[in-house]
Structure formats: C-alpha cells, structure tokens
Fold this sequence. Notes:
The complex is a heterodimer. By secondary structure, chain A is an alpha/beta fold. Chain A has helices at residues 36-52, 67-76, 94-108, 128-136, 190-197, 244-257, and strands at 2-6, 9-11, 18-19, 24-25, 32-34, 55-61, 80-84, 113-117, 140-151, 154-161, 164-170, 174-178, 203-204.
Amino acid sequence: xxIIVCIKQVPxxxxxxxxxxxxxxxxxxxxxxxxxxDMYAIEEGLRIKEMIGGKVTAISMGPPQALEALKExxxxxxxxxxxxxxxxxxxxxxxxxxxxxxxxxxxxxxxxIILCGKQAIDGDTAQVGPxxxxxxxxxxxxxxxxxxxxxxxxLRVHRMMEDGYDVIETRPPALLTVVKEINEPRxxxxxxxxxxxNLQVPVWRKEDLDVDEKRLGLKGSPTQVLRIFPPExxxxxxxxxGNLEEQIYKLVSELKGLGIL
Amino acid sequence: MDYFLTDAQKTIRDIAxxxxxxxxxxxxxxxxxxxxxxxxxxxxxxxxxLFGLYIPEKYGGFGGGSIDLALAVEELSSACLGVSTxxxxxxxxxxxxxxxxxxxxxxxFLPDIASGKKLAAFGLTxxxxxxxxxxxxxxxxxxxxxxxxxxxxxxxxxxGEAEIYTIIAxxxxxxxxxxxxxxxxxxxxxxxxxxxxxxxxGIRASATRELVFENCPVPKENLLSKEGMGFIVAMRTLxxxxxxxxxxxxxxxxxxxxxxxxxxxxxxxxxxxxxxFQAIQHMLADMAILTESARALVYxxxxxxxxxxxxxxxxxxxxKVFASDVAMKVATDAVQIFGGYGYMREYPVEKMxxxxxxxxxxxxxxxxxxxxxxxxxxxxxxSKK
Lengths: 261, 385
C-alpha cells in the first residue's frame, strides 16, 4: 500500500496567543512541534506498512522550517518526506492549503490511503483533511479511532462519535483523519534520528506543481477572519462553601429555589 | 555540568529521556503494584534502537560503548529502576558473547539482541553461590556433540521473558573456578524450564526467576570461548556491567533529587515553602553533590572502558559501590524531605527507596566490590617494589 501522511508544524502550546490586530497566531518565541494529531497519523501509517507492506510518504506544506517536522517524521520511520513550500503559498486558508496539497499528491501519483490528524492544534478547523479528499475526488472518513480491516480494494474503520462509534466500509483510495484513541505513537529511532540530521528534504515549489495561481496563498483564500477570541464564560456562577453535607444541602435548596427540583 | 557528550550521545540521552517521561513515568506505579513485566516499554526501546547501543554495527548495533549504554540506563533509571534493570540485563547477558564469542556465535545471537527482537538473561547466581560465585553446582557434562546441563540458577533477571541465556556451569568440578564454562542456551531447549517468579521488595516490574536445567542438551557450538573459561567470562562481563549499575544509581538518585526539589517548592509549612528552610536546602545540596560526583565517576570510568583499556576492574568496582550507596542515601533523604507523604505509595519516592536497595546488593554486593578494590590496592602496592 502506498500511504501518504499529511503533517503540519504547529507551535508547542495548547494556549496559542493571538495577535488582536491581525487576528493571526503569534508564533514568535514558541517552539515548534509536529501537530500531535498528526503523530497518530504517522504512527498509523507505519503500522499499516508493518502489517501489510508498502511505503509511507510524509508531506507538509509550510515555511522552510517545517522541514524539521518532516525530519521528525523520518526519524519515526517514514520512507520519504516532501516539503511543499513557496512564498506564493503564504497566507493560505484551509481551501488554498487543501488545493495545494491535492496538487502535490497528484504529483506523487499512486496512493491507497491518505492519513491526516483530526485537526491541527493551532487553527483547530478540522477542514483540511475533508477538503483535500474533495479536491482529489476520493471518499473520506473523519475521526477514525480504529482501522478494523484494510486490504486491496476494501477498508473498514471505526469513526468515533459522541455516543459510541460508527463502522464504515469504503474502498481505497480514501482519506482518513485520525483521533488520539487510534494508537500510541512510537518513539523516534536513534539511527534514523541521526540520519535525519543530514537528510536532504526535497522541496516542491509552485513551479513544481500543476497549479492554478489564482487558487494559491492569500489570493486563493476566501476565508475572512473578522475576529478570534477565547470563548467568554457566560452566566452567573456561585461557589457553594462548607463541608460536603452542607454543600449538598445548599445545592438542593438552590435547585429547589430555581424550580429545577 | 557539561560532560562533552557527542551529538549522537546527546541524541541517545534525549530519546531515552523521552521514553522515560512519556512511557515509563505514567506506568511505573502500576507496573510496580502489579509486579508486571514492562513489555510495551521494551517494545518502545526496541523501536528506538536502544538495545544495540554497545553492539558493533556489523552485528546490527549502534556501534557505541559503555558510555552510550550508561546514558540510556541513567535516563530510564530516573523514571523506574525495574524498567532499567530489565533493559540493562540484556547487556549483562550479551557481553559474554561480545567479549568471548566466536564470529559465528556473534553473528547468530547478537543481531536479535541488538534489535530488541529477543531479550537476553545472564545466569550465574545459585542458591548456594552468591558472593562465592565459585561455588556453583550446575554442571555441564560433555556427551558427543552436546553438553548436558543439570542444576538450578536463582534470581535470574529476565528469567522466563528472555529467549537467549548465557549460563555459567561446571564442566570439571575438580578444577574449582578453572572448571567453570560459559554457554549460550536458548529458551525452548528440552530440559530447560523456569521456576517460580520471585516476589521482591523493589524493581518489581522486572522478572526474577529460577532457571531449571534437567538433562538439558546444549550443542557444543554454544560453548563460549573454551572449557574452563567460564569464571573469566563472568568476571570480565561483571567488570563492564558494574558501570551500568553505577548509571542506574546515578539515574535513580537524579530522579529522587528532582522529585524532592519539586516537592520542597510546593510544600508549605510555617507559612513558607519548605525549600526556603536551610535544613531542607542543605539536604538537597548534599544530594546534588553526591549525585553529580557519582555521575562524573560513571562517565569517566565508562570512557576508560571504551578507550580500550584492559585495567578497569578496580574503577568499575568503585563506580558500583559509590553510585549505589549514593542512590540509597539520596532516595532515603528524598523520602525524608517528603515526610509522611514520602512514606505513602502515592508519591514515587517510596518506590525509589525500595528500588535503590537492590543496587547495593546485586551484581556483586558492595562488600564484595570493596574486596576487589582492596585486592587491587594490594596488587598495585606489591608491584611497585
């Protein structure tokens, strides 16, 4: 099986700060990591390969420093890595990003499975995976927590739902976005990590891809971000004090007072 | 402190630390409580290529030496000594093959140990042969193309879990230590079985079992070196492996010190964090001095071994004694700083103190190590005349 894993380099923090002027993420001074959900995608790709054979290619679209993320993927065991990077791609929203990625994947050619993390922890949109599948005209399943069966021409997966899971059958080539329940990522290999230091990562630029320039970067991004803000906590709050019994007594009388009980 | 590690060595340390933090720390209390073998962690260590650090590249290893192994052992020990014992016991079993094996033996056994595909165990100790290693009763009698092993080995780390065993047995009891020989025995050989799994004070994630040989035929190709070399194989192996025990001591002490500093900053008494009291600071300072001194001794001795020197028996005994005594003291003081909480199983220092004790006992008690040092001093003094 030819497996492609899409990864993104993100700031290493769950509390991303936002520049209120530009409504963009502040990246300065924050160390970068591979998006945690993408680590599960890499691991799943490696497990499929170990189980039924094949090749795993990791791709990432981003600035030149994103090659560090690809080197990390390499040290985990992926066979090939490709960086998709060009000034023309800067400012891409999810539509332009997924379009560009789809063109890179078309250039790679044959593939059976594309794996993505459920979402990136910086933007949290969870859109790039599904959009990428749409551009490529292939089926996709989001929030996959288990690959139940995979073989030539057949794929059965478990999609995580709030109240259980769906069992979904489909046919490769297909795209899956994965959640953290799917596996436990392995540590990097010492030998590959040392090789990765001198790894020449191929970089595909705009002219390497068969792209419509109007659909790239800021120009190709219809998304308009008006404002980004952390959710405000609404409603009144009351903290009940005292020992457990007193608190329960107060809670019951509060609820009765409100007519809930 | 900067120990002038190479980039590759820093990478080894970083990967081992990552595994320690991400895989070992979250599971150590449960592994200890349930006395459960750390299969998942061993798998991760294999995936990370850490089993072959000291094994030459041509046998599938990383091509490093004692220092590389010590770095990994230290990091794992800072999280859980039971895990690091399981890991390091493979090296203890592989060194006899590495040091004394034929090219054929190295080619057939080392690659699987280096990749972590097969675990290994070293069998010397018996019920009546501990510090007095020469008193072993297990026999190996040559019959045709085989040696027939009979006897029981006791307290063997990785017993039952390992696939490859290096065993010391007597081929000629009348010759005393010169009648001992070393063999490679594979799990599954007829007549080779396992006794009970021991219940231990500490390092409870590690498996400690008896190895039972009842007319167990071992092909003569599995004899390491020559008949009569068994005691030398064991002693040369232990000379190297003692540095690993030192690295375990440093790691455990380091882990306990970190926990103590963290706790002393959080714990408030008399309206202040207890770390603001000199009584606590001085204890922490002493713990830090001892830990760093032990580390310096471990690294420098490992480097002496890696330089190709033949003379390091005394130094490796010093490393073993000092670092294990440091680990015991630092772990005990960490429990003291935690006070009543330190005595509770909810906090990791209780386990660390239980675990530390074995370092002063196994792979040659600290008293035996002092004998080695004492004898070396006599020998050195005598040779000056």
